[in-house]
Write a structure and sequence with these properties.
The protein has 82 residues and is mainly alpha-helical. The protein is 74% helix and 0% strand. The chain contains 2 helices and no strands. α1 packs antiparallel against α2. The longest helix is centred in the C-terminal third of the chain and has 34 residues. The mean pLDDT is 93.
Length: 82
């Protein structure tokens, strides 16, 4: 399948955006200002809230990287074809 230049750049940008957003999310989850992720603020006792949101973040990060890689491959293939 051949991707257009516009689609390839969109996918690459989405991958970068995903890495930034989900890394920030995990940092904020670790800091836990609402005291929901850890019992009594103790990082050795994570709650179910922490594990669910960490799983969400890691999965989204990995999928974002995969989409970004597809976009970069499309950009490279478009340049090679020119």
């Amino acid at each position: 399948m051949k991707l257009s230049r516009r689609t390839s750049w969109f996918l690459a940008a989405f991958g970068v955006w995903s890495m930034i957003i989900w890394t920030t999310f995990v940092k904020n989850l670790w800091q836990d200002s609402a005291h929901q992720a850890f019992t009594n603020g103790d990082h050795s006792h994570p709650t179910a809230f922490f594990w669910i949101h960490l799983t969400l973040a890691v999965t989204s990060f990995v999928l974002g990287v995969a989409v970004g890689v597809v976009g970069l491959r499309g950009v490279r293939a478009g340049r090679a074809a020119e």
